[in-house]
Every structure is written in structure tokens, then in C-alpha cells.
Specification:
Blueprint: H1 16-28, H2 38-45, H3 50-92, H4 96-111, E1 115-122, E2 127-134, H5 139-142, E3 145-147, H6 151-159, E4 163-165, H7 178-187, E5 192-199, E6 202-210, H8 219-281, H9 286-297, E7 300-305, E8 310-314, H10 323-332, E9 336-338, E10 341-348, E11 351-359, H11 366-405, H12 413-425, E12 434-440, H13 446-460, E13 463-467, E14 470-476, H14 480-495, E15 500-507, H15 513-529, E16 536-538, H16 544-549, H17 555-573, H18 577-586, H19 591-598, H20 602-616, H21 623-640
Parallel strand pairs: 15-16
Antiparallel strand pairs: 1-2, 1-6, 2-3, 4-5, 5-6, 7-8, 7-11, 9-10, 10-11, 12-14, 12-15, 13-14
Helix pairs in contact: 1-3, 2-3, 3-4, 3-8, 4-8, 8-9, 8-11, 9-11, 11-12, 17-21, 18-19, 19-20
Length: 647
């Protein structure tokens, strides 16, 4: 290119080659774009002709285009470098939450947006929900759930394609909903870009970058966020698989520990069962089983039968099993805690045999609870064996009782001797004074009454059993009346219903037992007729009624029970109180008429009656006592009368 010659007195024309060299130099230094206009401005100032100016301006435009291309390459290189760094960072993370936070933070930095966030798809609910945000301030926005196809994000999740909106609020391409618009409005978002998170062909969520002012996202920016989303999806899936693997390992370890614990519990339960069964088969009693269970579970123990009678107790703090606990355990078939006490019903099928209560172990482990339940099964076995033996023994005792109370042996000494021998084999000594007691209760309670009477008879060293619609009990005692009274009170309280007991005896051998049984029946009938249901007594305790009903009437005993204090006073003092009483009652309870019969002053009669009242009690003149006194006075008079002369 020729160099223009300058006219004299003017500046030399610029060299176009120099301008081009300067442009290349600016490109090489990556100078700011505004500096590329200097060569053309200098040439214009130096008076360059139009051709040169056009050449320099064309070269300037070309240099700026090259600079823009270089800028794009450098920016792309930086973005790719950041993308590779991000992939490395994500690969190093193993915690899913950490991976998600790193993804949204890097998306915000790479695209230089105000906000970045990420949603994950929920296959069960059929929507996508907000999982992680960066730069967000609205709580409503951070809790959004987007249905498939709703809003920009729902559309991305549904179609697996990226979507961008320069101003989402005014963009009609998307399905706006009140919830989404409210959240986006509170956060102040305008320009939004969303790209799918894909693992193979499956979309697992959406990655977003957004600004709070309108913004057009370039294809390069969309491609960049999509590339980040691809790396992120792989990292998310890897982290999720790792978490699932860890969870599976934890579950496996837990299952292994559980299996080991269960195996140990089964071994311990089997050993316990063997030990308890051995105790039962060796003839051990309930106390032995209770001691073994208490030692095994390190607590206090109480075992009761079905009626609530305590069979064994180990540990002073062991409480009585609460009835509601026994009922709950029986209904559920499991041990239950009640007020810090574990209760297990002892069952044989649906039948309740008793209960076991464990104290001192409010926080019983599952294995110990199963052990406690297993122990109740062994207790059931023992109680069944005990009941079988007791039933067999009761049958023998019942047969003996039937034989003793029949009149057939009363006149057969050899049979009476055989019965006495059978009784001694059962621990009953009929050579002792023996009372016969007949017990009566409500018909529906008769079985329970018989069971209670059998148990009480064993403690009394006697016999008991059902007979003739009643329950009969034989017991060695010389005082049948007080025993009958005690039994009526004890059994009535235990059954929760009145029990009436008629007693007779004592009999001094098997031959006298049938007659005593008949007398006890008459006493029971008398108690019922007299309205004394729920009481216990013998015929002598019934006063003149007993005198009338008894076969072996003790007239002298009756007279002394009624008049004894007066008779004794007359004998000691030589007074005439008995005769005064006879005259008083004979004259219609009139002291005025009695004084004529006695030939004394009326005051003397009154004084004698006062003395009688102090001896017999203030109620001596009541109708019931007066009747007894008059009968005793007549019997006493008869006993003093001379007997008939023999012809």
C-alpha cells in the first residue's frame, strides 16, 4: 500500500498498515472494546482520505468481531472449567443434602442469578416439590408443590424439556395457579429458567435459575444450566444410591443384632422352660416355681389361683395382682403392665387357672416379657397337675364322706372300723370329737362353695364334698357352733353371697356321724325358717328351738344356759329368785299379784326382780327372753319333780 505524501505545513497522513498493527496489538492485549476506535479516530484527525478511513473502519469492525468471538470462547472455556470443577466437587460429595445444596449454589454462581432452586419429583403424589433453595427469602415459595404441567417447573417436569421465561408473571405460555403465583410473587421472581434433572430417560426433578428482574436467557446459558443439571442428576442418583446402601447396611446390622438377641432370648427361654418343667415333674410346688421365676426376672412375685387365693409369694414388695390386669391379660393372651406391675393370666385354653404378678420391673424388655409369659405357661402346667391330683383325692374323700354319712355302718362295727382306717390314710382321725356341718348357698354358687369347703377342710384336717344338694364338711372340733359361725362368715365373704351353716356334734366315732348329719340338716332348716340366712350355728345355739328339734336333747344344759346365773345365786345365797320368777310369769307378769302368791310385800317382789335383771341382763323381760325363761322354768320344775312310781 502506497504511503500518501503530506503537503508542506501539514501533519503526515496516517499509515493504514500502522493502524492495522495497532488493532492487532489491541486484540493481543485483550484491550477494552472502546480502545479499538482509536486508530480510526487518529486517521480521521490526520486527514486520511476516504479510502484509507474505510479500510481502517472495516479493519476495526473485523477486530471487534474477533474480540467478541474470543470473549465468547473465553467465557465458554471458563464455564466449562467451572462445570468440570462442579462435576468433581459433586463426585466428592456423598451426603444427598450436601449434593443438592452444592448444585443450586453452583447454578446461581454460574448463571449470575439472584436465586437458584431445585425441585424433586414425587411419584406417589404425582407432583414435584421444592427441595433446596439458594438466595430465597419467602417461606411460601420454599414450600411450593407443583402439579405436573403446572407453571414453568411443572411443565419442565412433565415434558423433560427446558423452558425459559423473560418475565414469568406476564408469560401466558404456562398454566398459572394461585399457589404458584403467590409463591413467585412473594419471592419477586421475574426471569426464570428451568431445566430437567434426568437419569437416563427418567426425570427426577427440575433445576432453576431466576432473577428478580426480567431477563432473557441465551441459548448458551440454557445449555450451561442443562449441562450442570446432567452432572447434578448423576450426583443425586449416586448419593441416593449410596444413602440407600447405607440404610440397607444399617437395617442389615439391626436385623442381625435383632436375630442374635432373639436367638439368645429363645435359648434363655428354652433353658427356663426346661428348668421350670423339671421342677414340676420332680414334684415341686408352686412356691418352688415362684422362687425360680422371681430369681430369673429379678423381681417380686405373687401367684394366685382363679379365686384370688394366694398360692405363693416371693419378695415382700410383690403386690396382689389387680383384677383388671388379670382380665386384660386373659382377654389379650399377653402379659400386661398395670400401675408398674406386670400381670399374666395363667390359662389352660380359655379357662382361667390363676394369675402371676411381677413387681420391681416396670420397664420389662420384650425378651423378659416373653420369658414371663412362658413362665406362666409352666405355672399353668403345675396348677393343672395339682388340680388333677386334688380332684382324684377329692373323689376319694367324697366317696369316704358318702360312706360315713350313710346309716348302713352305724350297726356294723367292722365296717365302721374299715371307714376309720380309710379316713386315717387321708389324714383324718375319726377317734377325735368330730363335728358335722351342712353348708348351703345359692345354687349357681354351689360348685365354688364346694371348692372353698374342700380347701378349708384340708386346713382343718377334715373332709368335705357335695351331698344331697348341700355341701357337707367334717372337722375335728368339740365346738361345732363357733366353727359354723366362722365358716359362714369366711365363705360368705369369699363368695360375695350369704352362706348358711348348720352344725351338729361332736360325734365320738363313725357310728354317730349319720345322726349328727341329720341333726345338722335340721339345724340348717331351722336357721332358714328363723330368717337367719347367712349365719352359722348348732341346735344348742338356737335356744328352745334346738331343744325341740334335737334328737339328744340336753335339758339340763339348756336350763343352765338360760337360768344358770339365777340358779347359782339361789344356791350360794339361799334366796328364792327362781320361785319369784315362776310366780311373776304365772301371774301374768304382775308384781302385785305375785306378792299374794309369795306372801311377801310388793317391794320385796320388785327388789327380787331387780336382782334377777342384774343377773340375766336388762333384756330379760323382752318377749323373746321371757319365752325362753318360762320354758326353762317349766323344764327346771319338771326336773325337780319326783318320777313316777313303779307298780
Amino acid at each position: 500500500m502506497a504511503t500518501a505524501h503530506a503537503r508542506p505545513g501539514t501533519a503526515p497522513a496516517p499509515d493504514a498498515a500502522a493502524a492495522l498493527r495497532e488493532l492487532f496489538d489491541l486484540l493481543g492485549r485483550h484491550a477494552p472494546a472502546e480502545q479499538f476506535a482509536r486508530p480510526a479516530a487518529a486517521a480521521r484527525a490526520a486527514g486520511a482520505d476516504r479510502t484509507q478511513l474505510a479500510l481502517i473502519e472495516d479493519a476495526t469492525d473485523a477486530a471487534l468481531a474477533v474480540r467478541r468471538t474470543l470473549d465468547q470462547h473465553r467465557r465458554r472455556e471458563a464455564e466449562l472449567s467451572a462445570l468440570f470443577d462442579t462435576a468433581g466437587d459433586l463426585a466428592a460429595l456423598t451426603d444427598l443434602d450436601a449434593v443438592l445444596r452444592a448444585i443450586v449454589r453452583r447454578a446461581r454462581l454460574l448463571l449470575r442469578t439472584d436465586v437458584a432452586y431445585l425441585t424433586l419429583n414425587d411419584p406417589a403424589a404425582g407432583d414435584t416439590f421444592m427441595r433446596v433453595t439458594d438466595g430465597c427469602a419467602s417461606a411460601t415459595f420454599q414450600q411450593l408443590r407443583l402439579g405436573m404441567g403446572e407453571g414453568l417447573g411443572g411443565l419442565v417436569a412433565q415434558t423433560a424439556r427446558p423452558y425459559a421465561s423473560a418475565d414469568y408473571r406476564a408469560d401466558t405460555r404456562f398454566q398459572h395457579t394461585r399457589a404458584i403465583d403467590t409463591g413467585v410473587g412473594e419471592e419477586g421472581l421475574r426471569g426464570i429458567l428451568g431445566v430437567p434433572l434426568r437419569v437416563g430417560s427418567r426425570v427426577i426433578g427440575v433445576l432453576y435459575a431466576a432473577d428478580r428482574s426480567p431477563r432473557d436467557f441465551t441459548p448458551d446459558q440454557i445449555a450451561l444450566l442443562a449441562s450442570l443439571a446432567d452432572h447434578a442428576a448423576v450426583a443425586i442418583d449416586g448419593a441416593r444410591l449410596l444413602e440407600e446402601t447405607r440404610a440397607a447396611l444399617v437395617e442389615l446390622n439391626t436385623a442381625t443384632a435383632t436375630a442374635h438377641a432373639q436367638s439368645e432370648a429363645l435359648r434363655r427361654a428354652a433353658e427356663t422352660h426346661d428348668r421350670l418343667t423339671d421342677i414340676v415333674l420332680r414334684g415341686g410346688d408352686v412356691a418352688d416355681v415362684a422362687a425360680e421365676i422371681a430369681a430369673l426376672l429379678d423381681g417380686g412375685l405373687v401367684i394366685q389361683d382363679a379365686d384370688g387365693t394366694e398360692l405363693a409369694r416371693v419378695g415382700a414388695a410383690a403386690p396382689t395382682p389387680p383384677a383388671r390386669g388379670v382380665a386384660a391379660s386373659r382377654a389379650g393372651g399377653r402379659a400386661v403392665p398395670v400401675d408398674g406391675v406386670w400381670v399374666s393370666a395363667v390359662l389352660a385354653g380359655p379357662e382361667l387357672l390363676g394369675s402371676v404378678a411381677l413387681s420391681g420391673r416396670p420397664d420389662l424388655t420384650d425378651s423378659d416379657r416373653r420369658l414371663f409369659e412362658r413362665a406362666s405357661l409352666d405355672t399353668a402346667l403345675l396348677l393343672l397337675l395339682r388340680r388333677t391330683v386334688a380332684e382324684a383325692e377329692d373323689r376319694v374323700r367324697g366317696e369316704l364322706l358318702d360312706d360315713l354319712l350313710t346309716a348302713a355302718h352305724a350297726t356294723d362295727p367292722r365296717r365302721a372300723e374299715t371307714l376309720a382306717l380309710r379316713a386315717r390314710r387321708l389324714g383324718v382321725d375319726l377317734t377325735e370329737p368330730t363335728a358335722v356341718l351342712v353348708l348351703h348357698g345359692e345354687p349357681e354358687l354351689r360348685t365354688r362353695l364346694a371348692t372353698r369347703a374342700l380347701r378349708r377342710a384340708r386346713t382343718l384336717r377334715g373332709l368335705a364334698g357335695p351331698l344331697g344338694g348341700h355341701v357337707v364338711l367334717l372337722a375335728p372340733t368339740a365346738e361345732p357352733g363357733p366353727l359354723a359361725e366362722r365358716l359362714a362368715a369366711e365363705l360368705g365373704e369369699a363368695l360375695g353371697a350369704p352362706v348358711t351353716v348348720g352344725a351338729a356334734g361332736p360325734a365320738d366315732g363313725p357310728a354317730r356321724l349319720p345322726a349328727a348329719h341329720a341333726e345338722a340338716l335340721r339345724c340348717l332348716q331351722a336357721l332358714t325358717v328363723l330368717g337367719r340366712t347367712g349365719e352359722g350355728a348348732s341346735l344348742p345355739d338356737l335356744g328352745f328351738v334346738g331343744v325341740l328339734l334335737g334328737d339328744r336333747t340336753d335339758v339340763t344344759g339348756y336350763v343352765h344356759r338360760v337360768l344358770g346365773p339365777v340358779l347359782d345365786y339361789d344356791a350360794r345365797r339361799g334366796t328364792d329368785l327362781v320361785r319369784t320368777l315362776e310366780a311373776y310369769f304365772d301371774q301374768g307378769a304382775s308384781p302385785a299379784r305375785a306378792k299374794d302368791v309369795l306372801h311377801v310385800h310388793v317391794n320385796t317382789v320388785v327388789q327380787r326382780l331387780d336382782r334377777t335383771a342384774r343377773l340375766l341382763g336388762a333384756d330379760w323381760n323382752t318377749p323373746a327372753r321371757a319365752l325362753e325363761l318360762q320354758l326353762a322354768l317349766r323344764l327346771n320344775r319338771l326336773s325337780r319333780s319326783p318320777g313316777p312310781r313303779r307298780g
